[in-house]
Design a protein that fits this description.
Chain A is mainly α. Chain A has one domain: ABC transporter type 1, transmembrane domain (ABC transporter transmembrane region fold, Up-down Bundle), CATH 1.20.1560. Chain A is built from 11 helices and no strands. Chain A is elongated and about 95 Å long. By secondary structure, chain B is α/β, with parallel strands linked by helices. Chain B folds into 3 domains: 328 residues, ABC transporter transmembrane region fold, CATH 1.20.1560; 161 residues, 3-Layer(aba) Sandwich (Rossmann fold); 72 residues, P-loop containing nucleotide triphosphate hydrolases (Rossmann fold, 3-Layer(aba) Sandwich), CATH 3.40.50. Chain B is elongated. The model of chain B has no long low-confidence stretch (mean pLDDT 86). The chains are: A mainly alpha, B alpha/beta.
Chain lengths: 345, 592
């Protein structure tokens, strides 16, 4: 649930190479061979912040480690209670080991507090870095504009350049921001969680692992469908933006020549196209969540059933099931985040 | 807001379906932990106790029964999980249809509205802001709807459902939920009261950034010509820096939310275990129920957090909604009468009768006591220094603006009594900036007269002296024209803009300083061609060059919004001081 308050992907960004409108045909040739260079360039902006980025990633990792230990301790607390209940059946009275419980509770509070402090510092630093990067990118673009050959502006509409300065830079920086910190915290979370899971039960861990290929397979299938749709949507968006931009700039001529109706009819065509491509793209990319959710629930169910069987056979404790369920959730969260990010890219 | 709600109406069935489906989804989600608690309570604890008590053969039977029970519960969970996902998919489908449909309709309404704006309304907004309002702002609203509806409905269902379920498990621990919700609530209030006011500012700063960037883009040639790149860069830098500062603050405040929320979220289960221990000791609570309780408390807080994410989107979207409403609420100043008079194409005499005019946004009168008549078949020229009101005057004829007092009449009919379409069909207008549309030469001409034949197109270009350079183009009349005609020279643009007006063969022609970029020969040839081909039309020429207007049948000399001289070139040279000044400054003794 923690990712609900993160910045959500902005569907409105005209992606690179997408916002061209009638220029799309002209710029059509510029996509594949430039990707590597573009990526390299994007990452070169990170260069100056190596120390800051390292700190951010370190903090994210540290904060994740503490989060990973938590559920295990909480499970131990449950076990203390369950053992008391079990013994109670024999003795007729439930006697809880309060000293053990207290120790666990204190340890938990400490862990979570430290994790909190790390997260806050990390958040502050990330915000600083990402804002500096966007600022520098915009500055560079603004300076570049004054150095580009005039010919560039003949084939590129003003709206297109504008949307690069505002929207594209924004979405690039937010993906950089999200990707980097998530990379660090997700990695530690995954590794830490695997260790904890293995320490509880290798059988159950195997089940959880079994879910990954399933998830990955589904995610890759969905991406295959959603990517082209997203591109189509961005292209239509570019058409709409281009038309609006042009008609606004030529407002007086549109009026003088009674072209309002024609302009509106044209707009309707682009607009309808955007709608059609838009909802398809949305459905495709948003189906990622329910589907990966289902897979994660499947893991949850299997753990509940098999875990229960193991508890009956005394090879597992009730608290273990509880911790394991939390871990499965932890474990699936990064996978779902990967799924989310991949629809954004 | 009411505009947006009005647009939601057609999608009400879709919206209701979505709400119901989301309810089902929430129910399925809430049922899962309950089944799990039964596995622990009944499947593990109670059966184990029974088995321990029974012993022997009865125990073996019980163990088999226990297995069956656990499996049946597992199956129940599987059904629930499948249901949740199917329903969630359906919800996404509904919301995608809803969101994209609504934004399409909204865009259509906004665009239509802007197209109905006259100059007066259009001036209230910058072009850049009109564009962001039709595109980005609508996207924001769409996003709020697609994500928002899901969240706004799902969260309360989960929250309330979670409370109900938790209360059933352990009513005596309800205060923990109350406390956690209270903490989350406080956090949200604090964070938002810090960040919210800045969202509007951020939006404004984005606009500013857009504006500055746009200006330096559209004025690119000027910037280069005068080498003011540094100045432009500094201006942009300032806007960018302002944006950065505010954005940093908001990002930081927002980044506090996650960890704090996480802290509350992780400490609450600890509290539940601590408090639950006592209840378990007193046999008031079963361990499985406590485990479910922890999950429900997570659901309740999760619901609150989801709602809080609405508070991030909502103000942003509200800003967008308001900006959209500003457009839709703008009342058109230029309106049409209910039963317009229709003027047929034919000779038109234009009369200005004691016209006063002021821009809605400005204070003083720009035009004062303007009276004159422009006769068909005659050329009326208007001359005067920059800013004397020439363009303002002619803008009154096609009703880009309306007079403040007095009237503009065509054949005795007030222009305000005509339908706008009828009025503008009578006029061939060549604007000061020759604004060509992207497409081809042909498409630009066809825009003025959709049913024009090939001959008409060629003829119009011939009259406008554009034929020669079009012929040089490989594609001829299908030569591409980029937005604003930037791939043609200034003079070529003007001639194309003239051709576009000429093709209409309109009874009235308005040339707003449209010969300025032409060389003298072309100017002369053009005027000759116009005179012979538009013999019956009423022609009004605004100009700065005496040479191009001195042949006019009537020249109006304007100064500071008034007509200070009226007559032919000869008459004015004798009677009008201002005209003489202009003429002598531009022409040699003998030319005059």
């Amino acid at each position: 649930m923690a990712n609900n308050n993160r910045n959500t992907p902005v569907p409105g960004r005209p992606g690179p190479g997408g916002g061209g409108g009638r220029n799309a045909a002209i710029r059509g040739g510029e996509k594949p061979k430039d990707i590597k260079k573009t990526l390299k360039k994007s990452f070169s902006y990170l260069g100056g912040y190596k120390a800051g980025l390292a700190l951010v990633m370190l903090l994210a990792a540290a904060s994740s480690i503490f989060k990973v230990i938590g559920p295990n301790l909480l499970g131990k607390a449950t076990d203390v209670l369950y053992t008391a209940v079990e013994n109670g059946v024999v003795t007729g009275q439930i006697a809880i080991d309060y000293t053990a419980l207290q120790e666990i509770v204190f340890a938990l509070c400490g862990l979570y507090l430290v994790s909190f402090v790390f997260s806050v510092v990390q958040g502050f630093t990330t915000a600083q870095i990402s804002n500096n990067i966007t600022y520098r990118m915009r500055k560079d673009i603004s300076e570049k504009i004054n150095r580009l050959p005039i010919g560039f502006f003949d084939v590129t509409s003003t709206g297109d350049v504008l949307s690069r300065i505002t929207n594209d830079v924004e979405s690039l920086s937010s993906s950089l921001r999200e990707t980097l910190t998530q990379l660090a915290s997700s990695l530690t979370l995954i590794v830490g969680t695997i260790v904890m899971m293995l320490s509880i039960s290798w059988q159950l861990t195997l089940i959880a692992f079994g879910m990954i290929p399933v998830s990955m397979f589904i995610i890759s299938k969905i991406i295959k469908i959603s990517q082209p749709l997203y591109r189509k949507q961005q292209k239509s968006l570019g058409m709409v933006n281009g038309h609006v931009e042009e008609m606004m700039s030529a407002h007086i001529v549109v009026k003088a020549f009674n072209m309002e109706d024609k302009s509106i009819t044209d707009f309707d065509v682009y607009n309808q196209e955007l709608r059609e491509n838009g909802w398809r793209s949305r459905v495709a990319s948003s189906s990622m969540m329910p589907v990966t959710n289902f897979v994660s629930n499947l893991g949850y169910i299997l753990v509940c059933i098999l875990g229960a069987g193991m508890v009956v056979q005394k090879t597992l404790t009730v608290g273990n099931i509880q911790s394991f369920i939390s871990y499965i959730r932890n474990f699936n969260q990064p996978i779902q985040q990967i799924a989310n990010i991949s629809t954004m890219l | 807001m009411k505009h947006v709600l009005k647009h939601v109406k057609p999608y009400l069935p879709l919206l209701i379906t979505s709400v119901i489906l989301i309810g089902i989804q929430a129910y399925c989600n809430l049922a899962l932990p309950d089944v799990m608690s039964q596995i622990v309570n009944v499947g593990i604890q109670q059966y184990s106790e029974k088995i321990a008590a029974a012993g022997g053969r009865a125990a073996t039977a019980l163990i088999a029964e226990q297995k069956r029970y656990i499996y049946s519960m597992g199956f129940k969970m599987l059904v629930l999980a499948t249901g949740t996902s199917m329903v969630a998919l359906a919800v996404q489908f509904c919301n995608a249809r809803l969101g994209t449909g609504l934004s399409r309709d909204l865009r259509k309404t906004i665009f239509g509205k802007i197209e109905s704006f006259s100059g007066a309304e259009f001036d209230q907004f910058s072009t850049a802001s009109l564009i962001t309002r039709t595109t980005n702002d609508v996207q924001q609203v769409q996003m709020m709807l697609t994500m928002g509806v899901r969240t706004i409905v799902f969260a309360p269902f989960m929250g309330i459902g979670g409370v109900v379920m938790a209360m059933r498990k352990a009513p005596s621990m309800a205060w923990i939920n109350a406390l956690s919700v209270l903490l989350v609530f406080c956090l949200i209030v604090v964070v938002y009261s810090l960040a919210l006011p800045r969202f509007k500012i951020i939006q404004e700063l984005v606009d500013k950034l857009n504006l500055v960037a746009r200006e330096s883009l559209t004025g690119l040639l000027v910037v280069r010509a005068f080498s003011t790149q540094k100045y432009e860069e500094e201006r942009f830098d300032k806007a960018s820096n302002d944006y950065k500062k505010t954005n940093l603050f908001v990002n930081r405040t927002m980044s506090m939310m996650g960890p704090t929320m996480g802290l509350i979220q992780t400490l609450v289960p600890v509290l539940i275990v601590w408090v639950g221990a006592d209840k378990i000791a007193q046999s008031q609570l079963m361990v499985g129920d406590m485990m479910a309780y922890i999950q429900y408390s997570g659901n309740i807080m999760g619901a609150f957090m989801m709602l809080s994410s609405i508070f991030i989107m909502f103000p942003r979207a509200m800003v967008s909604v308001n900006r959209i409403s500003e457009i839709l609420d703008t009342e058109n100043i230029i309106t049409e009468v209910e039963t317009p008079v229709t003027l047929p194409q034919g000779k038109c005499e234009i009369t200005f009768d004691n016209v006063n005019f002021a821009y809605p946004s400005g204070d003083g009168d720009v035009l004062e006591n303007i009276s004159f008549t422009a006769k068909p078949g005659r050329v009326t020229a208007i001359i005067g220094s920059t800013g004397c009101g020439k363009t303002s005057l002619i803008n009154l004829i096609p009703r880009f603006y309306d007079v403040k007092s007095g009237s503009v009449k065509i054949n005795g009919v007030d222009v305000r009594d005509l339908s706008l379409k009828n009025l503008r069909d009578l006029i061939g207008y060549v604007p000061q900036k020759s604004v060509l549309l992207s497409g081809t030469v042909r498409s630009n001409l066809l825009a003025a007269k959709p049913d024009a034949t090939e001959e008409e197109i060629v003829k119009a270009c011939e009259i406008a002296q554009a034929k020669s350079f079009i012929k040089e183009k490989e594609e001829g009349y299908d030569a591409p024209v980029s937005q604003g005609g930037t791939n043609f020279s200034g003079g070529q643009c003007q001639r194309l803009a003239i051709a576009r007006a000429v093709i209409k063969m309109a009874p009235i022609y308005i040339f707003d300083d449209s010969f300025s970029a032409l060389d003298f020969t072309t100017d002369l040839n053009l005027r000759k061609a116009l005179n012979s081909n538009l013999a019956d039309s009423t022609i009004i020429i605004v100009g700065q060059r005496v040479a191009s207007i001195m042949d006019a049948d009537q020249i109006l000399v304007m100064d500071e919004g008034r007509i200070v001289g009226k007559g032919t070139h000869k008459q004015l040279l004798e009677s009008c001081e201002e005209y003489r000044e202009i003429a002598y400054s531009q022409l040699s003794e003998e030319e005059v």
